TrEMBL record:
Biased composition (Low complexity): 1-16
Pfam families, per database record: SseB
Protein name: SseB family protein
InterPro entries: SseB_N (IPR009839)
Domain SseB protein N-terminal: 48-171
Domain of life: Bacteria
Protein backbone atom coordinates (compact mmCIF):
# COMPACT_ATOMS: atom_id res chain seq x y z
CA UNK A 1 0.00 0.00 0.00
CA UNK A 2 1.34 3.41 -0.94
CA UNK A 3 1.39 6.46 1.26
CA UNK A 4 0.63 9.49 -0.96
CA UNK A 5 3.35 12.08 -1.00
CA UNK A 6 2.61 15.11 1.17
CA UNK A 7 0.64 17.65 -0.80
CA UNK A 8 0.22 15.43 -3.88
CA UNK A 9 -3.31 14.76 -5.14
CA UNK A 10 -4.00 11.66 -7.23
CA UNK A 11 -6.28 13.63 -9.54
CA UNK A 12 -5.25 11.88 -12.76
CA UNK A 13 -6.08 8.46 -11.38
CA UNK A 14 -9.38 9.31 -9.78
CA UNK A 15 -10.72 12.05 -12.03
CA UNK A 16 -10.21 15.81 -11.91
CA UNK A 17 -11.91 17.61 -9.00
CA UNK A 18 -14.91 19.77 -9.64
CA UNK A 19 -14.71 23.54 -9.66
CA UNK A 20 -14.16 24.98 -6.21
CA UNK A 21 -13.22 21.64 -4.69
CA UNK A 22 -10.04 19.75 -3.89
CA UNK A 23 -9.01 16.39 -5.36
CA UNK A 24 -11.29 14.59 -2.92
CA UNK A 25 -14.32 16.69 -3.94
CA UNK A 26 -14.32 18.69 -0.69
CA UNK A 27 -15.26 22.37 -1.28
CA UNK A 28 -12.54 24.94 -0.67
CA UNK A 29 -15.04 27.39 0.84
CA UNK A 30 -14.51 28.01 4.53
CA UNK A 31 -11.13 26.30 4.64
CA UNK A 32 -7.92 28.01 5.82
CA UNK A 33 -4.73 27.34 3.88
CA UNK A 34 -1.45 27.47 5.76
CA UNK A 35 1.78 28.50 4.01
CA UNK A 36 4.16 25.74 2.99
CA UNK A 37 6.92 25.32 5.58
CA UNK A 38 9.34 24.87 2.68
CA UNK A 39 8.60 28.08 0.82
CA UNK A 40 11.86 29.50 -0.47
CA UNK A 41 13.72 26.23 0.08
CA UNK A 42 16.68 26.16 -2.33
CA UNK A 43 17.01 22.37 -2.15
CA UNK A 44 20.46 22.41 -0.56
CA UNK A 45 21.54 19.99 2.15
CA UNK A 46 21.54 21.12 5.76
CA UNK A 47 25.10 22.00 6.74
CA UNK A 48 24.80 20.20 10.08
CA UNK A 49 23.80 16.98 8.35
CA UNK A 50 26.62 17.32 5.81
CA UNK A 51 29.14 17.77 8.63
CA UNK A 52 27.75 14.86 10.64
CA UNK A 53 27.90 12.54 7.63
CA UNK A 54 31.48 13.56 6.93
CA UNK A 55 32.51 12.92 10.57
CA UNK A 56 30.47 9.74 11.13
CA UNK A 57 33.52 7.52 11.62
CA UNK A 58 34.71 9.68 14.47
CA UNK A 59 31.40 10.66 16.07
CA UNK A 60 29.25 7.59 15.34
CA UNK A 61 25.76 7.11 13.93
CA UNK A 62 23.98 8.78 16.85
CA UNK A 63 25.50 12.13 15.85
CA UNK A 64 24.14 11.73 12.31
CA UNK A 65 20.66 10.86 13.56
CA UNK A 66 20.75 13.80 15.96
CA UNK A 67 21.76 16.12 13.12
CA UNK A 68 18.93 14.79 10.93
CA UNK A 69 16.31 15.49 13.60
CA UNK A 70 14.25 18.55 12.76
CA UNK A 71 15.62 18.91 9.23
CA UNK A 72 14.02 18.76 5.82
CA UNK A 73 14.67 15.81 3.54
CA UNK A 74 13.35 14.92 0.09
CA UNK A 75 11.25 11.83 -0.47
CA UNK A 76 11.36 10.55 -4.07
CA UNK A 77 8.04 9.99 -5.81
CA UNK A 78 7.85 8.42 -9.25
CA UNK A 79 5.20 8.12 -11.92
CA UNK A 80 3.68 4.69 -12.49
CA UNK A 81 1.12 3.42 -14.95
CA UNK A 82 -2.44 3.15 -13.65
CA UNK A 83 -2.99 -0.30 -12.21
CA UNK A 84 0.71 -1.14 -12.04
CA UNK A 85 1.53 -3.64 -9.34
CA UNK A 86 4.58 -3.76 -7.06
CA UNK A 87 7.77 -4.16 -9.09
CA UNK A 88 10.65 -6.11 -7.52
CA UNK A 89 13.01 -4.58 -10.09
CA UNK A 90 12.36 -0.91 -9.35
CA UNK A 91 11.22 -1.26 -5.77
CA UNK A 92 8.18 0.91 -6.57
CA UNK A 93 4.91 0.09 -4.88
CA UNK A 94 1.62 1.55 -5.99
CA UNK A 95 -2.04 1.30 -5.18
CA UNK A 96 -3.99 0.09 -8.19
CA UNK A 97 -5.08 3.16 -10.12
CA UNK A 98 -2.53 5.51 -8.53
CA UNK A 99 -0.45 7.66 -10.87
CA UNK A 100 2.37 8.51 -8.43
CA UNK A 101 4.07 6.27 -5.89
CA UNK A 102 6.56 6.46 -3.08
CA UNK A 103 9.71 4.46 -3.74
CA UNK A 104 10.91 1.71 -1.44
CA UNK A 105 14.10 -0.32 -1.63
CA UNK A 106 15.12 -3.76 -0.45
CA UNK A 107 18.03 -3.98 2.00
CA UNK A 108 20.55 -6.84 1.68
CA UNK A 109 18.86 -8.65 4.57
CA UNK A 110 15.50 -8.52 2.79
CA UNK A 111 13.92 -5.73 4.81
CA UNK A 112 12.23 -2.80 3.13
CA UNK A 113 13.87 0.62 3.28
CA UNK A 114 12.73 4.10 2.27
CA UNK A 115 15.28 6.32 0.50
CA UNK A 116 15.45 9.97 1.55
CA UNK A 117 17.75 12.66 0.27
CA UNK A 118 19.48 15.59 1.88
CA UNK A 119 19.24 17.73 -1.27
CA UNK A 120 17.60 17.87 -4.68
CA UNK A 121 21.05 17.38 -6.25
CA UNK A 122 21.52 14.12 -4.34
CA UNK A 123 18.10 12.90 -5.48
CA UNK A 124 18.75 13.85 -9.11
CA UNK A 125 22.01 11.93 -9.04
CA UNK A 126 20.03 8.86 -7.98
CA UNK A 127 17.06 9.24 -10.35
CA UNK A 128 16.63 12.39 -12.46
CA UNK A 129 13.02 11.44 -13.21
CA UNK A 130 11.95 11.19 -9.57
CA UNK A 131 9.94 14.06 -8.12
CA UNK A 132 11.50 15.52 -4.94
CA UNK A 133 8.84 15.98 -2.26
CA UNK A 134 10.12 17.97 0.72
CA UNK A 135 9.26 16.59 4.13
CA UNK A 136 10.32 16.95 7.73
CA UNK A 137 12.48 13.93 8.50
CA UNK A 138 10.09 12.99 11.30
CA UNK A 139 7.19 12.84 8.83
CA UNK A 140 9.33 10.79 6.44
CA UNK A 141 10.08 8.35 9.25
CA UNK A 142 6.36 8.01 9.99
CA UNK A 143 5.68 7.41 6.29
CA UNK A 144 8.41 4.77 6.20
CA UNK A 145 6.77 2.96 9.11
CA UNK A 146 3.39 3.18 7.38
CA UNK A 147 4.97 1.62 4.27
CA UNK A 148 6.32 -1.26 6.33
CA UNK A 149 9.91 -0.04 6.01
CA UNK A 150 12.35 -0.88 8.80
CA UNK A 151 15.10 1.48 7.61
CA UNK A 152 15.77 4.88 6.09
CA UNK A 153 18.60 5.14 3.57
CA UNK A 154 20.01 8.64 3.36
CA UNK A 155 21.41 9.59 -0.06
CA UNK A 156 21.59 6.05 -1.53
CA UNK A 157 23.54 7.28 -4.57
CA UNK A 158 26.32 8.69 -2.39
CA UNK A 159 29.68 6.97 -2.11
CA UNK A 160 28.72 6.05 1.46
CA UNK A 161 24.96 6.04 2.00
CA UNK A 162 23.88 6.31 5.61
CA UNK A 163 21.40 3.75 6.92
CA UNK A 164 19.12 4.83 9.77
CA UNK A 165 18.44 1.58 11.68
CA UNK A 166 14.96 0.59 12.84
CA UNK A 167 15.30 1.81 16.47
CA UNK A 168 16.61 5.18 15.24
CA UNK A 169 13.82 5.42 12.65
CA UNK A 170 11.28 4.86 15.42
CA UNK A 171 13.00 7.48 17.58
CA UNK A 172 12.88 10.04 14.76
CA UNK A 173 9.20 9.32 14.15
CA UNK A 174 8.50 9.83 17.87
CA UNK A 175 10.76 12.91 18.05
CA UNK A 176 12.98 11.52 20.78
CA UNK A 177 16.73 11.05 21.11
CA UNK A 178 18.38 7.79 20.07
CA UNK A 179 21.46 5.97 21.32
CA UNK A 180 22.92 2.89 19.64
CA UNK A 181 22.24 -0.28 21.58
CA UNK A 182 25.92 -1.02 22.09
CA UNK A 183 26.24 2.21 24.09
CA UNK A 184 23.33 1.45 26.43
CA UNK A 185 23.96 0.07 29.92
CA UNK A 186 20.49 -1.49 30.08
CA UNK A 187 21.14 -3.48 26.90
CA UNK A 188 24.50 -4.64 28.25
CA UNK A 189 22.79 -5.77 31.46
CA UNK A 190 20.14 -7.68 29.50
CA UNK A 191 22.84 -9.43 27.48
CA UNK A 192 24.76 -10.39 30.60
CA UNK A 193 21.58 -11.77 32.15
CA UNK A 194 20.95 -13.89 29.07
CA UNK A 195 24.51 -15.20 28.71
CA UNK A 196 26.31 -15.29 32.03
CA UNK A 197 23.85 -17.75 33.57
CA UNK A 198 25.71 -20.31 31.47
CA UNK A 199 28.57 -21.86 33.50
CA UNK A 200 30.77 -21.93 30.40
CA UNK A 201 30.38 -18.18 29.76
CA UNK A 202 33.01 -16.22 31.67
CA UNK A 203 31.77 -12.84 30.41
CA UNK A 204 29.43 -11.25 27.87
CA UNK A 205 30.28 -7.84 26.42
CA UNK A 206 28.27 -5.66 24.05
CA UNK A 207 30.13 -3.63 21.42
CA UNK A 208 29.62 -2.15 17.98
CA UNK A 209 29.10 -4.85 15.38
CA UNK A 210 31.02 -5.53 12.21
CA UNK A 211 28.37 -7.26 10.12
CA UNK A 212 25.40 -6.24 12.29
CA UNK A 213 24.52 -3.16 14.33
CA UNK A 214 25.52 -4.74 17.64
CA UNK A 215 27.88 -7.55 18.62
CA UNK A 216 27.68 -9.76 21.68
CA UNK A 217 31.16 -11.04 22.52
CA UNK A 218 31.13 -14.19 24.65
CA UNK A 219 34.28 -15.27 26.48
CA UNK A 220 33.97 -19.04 26.85
CA UNK A 221 35.73 -21.58 29.00
CA UNK A 222 38.07 -23.74 26.89
CA UNK A 223 37.26 -27.33 26.03
CA UNK A 224 33.67 -27.08 24.73
CA UNK A 225 32.96 -29.52 21.93
CA UNK A 226 30.81 -28.52 18.95
CA UNK A 227 27.49 -29.99 20.18
CA UNK A 228 27.88 -28.31 23.59
CA UNK A 229 28.83 -25.01 21.95
CA UNK A 230 25.87 -25.12 19.56
CA UNK A 231 23.47 -25.88 22.42
CA UNK A 232 24.90 -23.03 24.52
CA UNK A 233 24.54 -20.53 21.68
CA UNK A 234 20.98 -21.62 21.02
CA UNK A 235 20.03 -21.10 24.66
CA UNK A 236 21.66 -17.66 24.79
CA UNK A 237 20.04 -16.55 21.54
CA UNK A 238 16.64 -17.80 22.70
CA UNK A 239 16.93 -15.72 25.88
CA UNK A 240 18.01 -12.66 23.90
CA UNK A 241 15.11 -13.07 21.48
CA UNK A 242 12.69 -13.25 24.41
CA UNK A 243 13.92 -9.96 25.90
CA UNK A 244 11.54 -7.05 25.13
CA UNK A 245 14.36 -4.58 25.71
CA UNK A 246 16.68 -6.29 23.23
CA UNK A 247 13.87 -6.53 20.68
CA UNK A 248 13.13 -2.81 21.04
CA UNK A 249 16.67 -1.46 21.20
CA UNK A 250 18.71 -3.71 18.89
CA UNK A 251 18.34 -3.49 15.12
CA UNK A 252 20.51 -6.51 14.28
CA UNK A 253 22.79 -8.74 16.30
CA UNK A 254 25.89 -10.87 15.77
CA UNK A 255 27.65 -13.14 18.24
CA UNK A 256 31.41 -13.42 18.42
CA UNK A 257 33.32 -15.95 20.52
CA UNK A 258 36.60 -15.67 22.39
CA UNK A 259 38.36 -17.93 24.87
CA UNK A 260 38.35 -16.84 28.49
CA UNK A 261 41.82 -16.23 29.85
Amino acid sequence: MTTPAPGHAHGHAHGAPGAGADSGGVPWAGRTLTPSPFAGDDGAADERVVAALADRDATGPAAVVAALAGTRVFVPVVAVAAGEEASPLTGVTSDTGADMAVVTLQAPDGRRAMPVFTSTAALSAWDPAARPVPSEVERAALSAADEGCALLVVDPAAERPFVVPRPALEALAQQRAWRPSWERDDVAAAVRAAAEVEPAVASAVVERGRRAETAVVLALAPGLDRPALDALLERVQTRLAASPLVAEAVDSLEVRLTTAS
